[in-house]
Specification:
alpha+beta, four-stranded antiparallel beta sheet, 2 domains
Amino acid sequence: MRCIYCLRDDGPYTAEHVIPEAFGLYGPETMVLNDTVCHRCNQGFGSFLDQILARDSYEGLLRADIFPRTDRQRDRFRPRRTVMRFPDEPQFEHFRGLRLEVDWAIRRPRMLDQVAVRDDAGTRHTFTLEEMGTADPSLFRNRPPDAVQVFALSLEAATALQRAAESLGAHFKPAVEMERPAELQKPSMLLEIEGTIDSRVLRAVGKIAFNYLAFTQGTTFALSSDFDEMRAFIRGDGTKPAGRVSLDPILANETRETRTHEMHVILAERDEREIWARVSLFNSFSYHFRVCRHTAVWYALHSGHTFDPIERKIHKLTPIPKSIWVPRIYPP
């Protein structure tokens, strides 16, 4: 036995889920690699890749929105790649442009403690207490008292933010308690999301693609040197393989504007002598990876599945002419 990532044979080995557990389990059908990934790689991927994908990516935000609420002690994870805001629109009143983050203890958004300031052009900037140390003091000096505001969920946090802003030259009106505008009392609303798809997110999704290939085609197949470029990228030792991130759906019967489901989609296909994989979590962004640029093994490779994290079911995909795939969710 050898680990398909580091290629070492000294173990020990642990179970590796093809799709991280955070994105759903599927009972006895759950795709799990046994005696295939060593404990060192599994543990490292969990800390540096899977957690980022699950909590600090667009797919992570979808996970928080789609999966049921939880009720645990407060989780102090702070995102660095994703930002949520109330739209800077009149119906949000004094909450316009304020930032939120997911409280992972309950999987729901909560407003950050922050200072908000409008510049001369009318753009609203927000800063947490940690960010005030790098804020431009010219944004705060000689501003009207109502141009700089503090929003906090506790008096202690509000006091600390006000002092930090005053040290940069801000002046405040007497503090008042603000009521939530009607827009914030609705059962749901649209938020603005800004995010970065960086190398950790790409490596995490690439790992799902390579895990899937190893599960469907076998460990011996994945150990081939043909996949050294892909495994080096996932480990963080190599450059990104050919590929792209797209808003176009993978399945044939969908468009950018019309998605029929929120299942995960994974495909692995042969294109001449190259092998490509496509992954879309919650049927959102589509990640395309060339997992092998030249394989010595010549055979047809067409494998695809959808994973329903709510119903906890896996469905095989069926190819039709011109390499278009459709979900086969009817009985065989």
